[in-house]
Structures are given as C-alpha cells and as structure tokens.
C-alpha cells in the first residue's frame, strides 16, 4: 500500500491555533492530512482512519492536564512522535514532557515564537518524510 501524505493529528482547543498551523502547512506542502480534535478525549476515544505520522498537542487542554495528557496520548499512540505546544517558556515542564516522550516542546509566548514553532514542525515533518522515503526504498 502506497502512502500519500503526512497524517498529522492536531489536538488544539483554540480554533485560531488550528488555523495558524493549517495555514503554515498549506504554505510548505499540500501533501498532508490534518485531523483536528479540540479535546484530548476525542483523540483518545475516537479512532482515526489514518495511520498517524505526527501529533501536535496543546499542553493546556480543557479536559487534560499537561503531563497526564501526553502520557495518555503516548499510551494510545506509542510510536507516533509528539510535539507539545505551551503558552509560555517553562523549563521544568519542558524537561518533564521530553522525559515522558515528547520529541519537542515549543513555547509560544512571543510573536517570533510562532516562527520557531513552524520551523520545528517543518523539521518534524521533514524527518518523517525522510524516514518514509527510506522505508519505501527498502521494499521486498
């Protein structure tokens, strides 16, 4: 089965945040599927029809708390890389989330932080694309 596009699950309760990420993705690639859930429970309880490549989640969801939200997502999707977004820099939280399995933590508390977030998202997508390409080259 040939896979088309990168499948990204975005868990973000703020529609404005979703549109910013969607617009960024549209600017760099048309080769993605964005699945948007506003609540952690939707991501845990509703199976996606896609095989996920990347999860981007807000650390401050209405139905989850920071570290426990990541643990629940990693339990449900253990092999999917997770980037956690937070509204301000917090070194202690960053360390805990990275130790719990997040591949990256991005604080968006200034305008230029959005650029940094988009850069990290692009790199995560790029890593996934390169990994998919390497895996596709090893077909038997």
Notable characteristics:
140 residues; alpha/beta; 47% helix; single chain
Descriptive overview:
- By secondary structure, this protein is an alpha/beta fold.
- The chain contains five helices and five strands, in the order E-H-E-H-E-H-E-H-E-H.
- It has helices at residues 15-28, 40-45, 66-76, 91-99, 111-136, and strands at residues 6-11, 32-37, 54-58, 82-86, 104-107.
- A five-stranded parallel beta sheet has the order 2-1-3-4-5, sandwiched between helices.
- The protein starts with 5 loop residues before the first strand and ends with a helix.
Order of strands in the sheet with the most strands? 2-1-3-4-5
Order of helices and strands: EHEHEHEHEH
Give Rg in angstroms: 15 Å
Distance between the termini: 13 Å
Low-pLDDT windows of residues: 132-140
Give the helix/strand class. alpha/beta
Residue-averaged pLDDT, rounded?
A: 79
């Amino acid at each position: 089965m040939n896979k088309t596009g990168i499948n990204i699950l975005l868990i973000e309760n703020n529609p404005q945040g979703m549109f910013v990420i969607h617009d960024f993705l549209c600017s760099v690639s048309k080769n993605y599927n964005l699945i948007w859930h506003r609540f952690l429970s939707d991501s845990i309880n509703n199976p996606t029809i896609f095989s996920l490549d990347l999860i981007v989640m807000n650390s401050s969801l209405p139905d989850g708390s920071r570290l426990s939200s990541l643990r629940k997502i990693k339990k449900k999707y253990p092999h999917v890389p997770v980037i956690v977004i937070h509204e301000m820099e917090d070194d202690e939280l960053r360390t805990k989330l990275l130790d719990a399995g997040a591949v990256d933590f991005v604080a968006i508390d200034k305008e230029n932080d959005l650029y940094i977030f988009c850069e990290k998202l692009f790199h995560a997508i790029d890593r996934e694309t390169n990994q998919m390409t390497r895996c596709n080259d090893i077909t038997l």
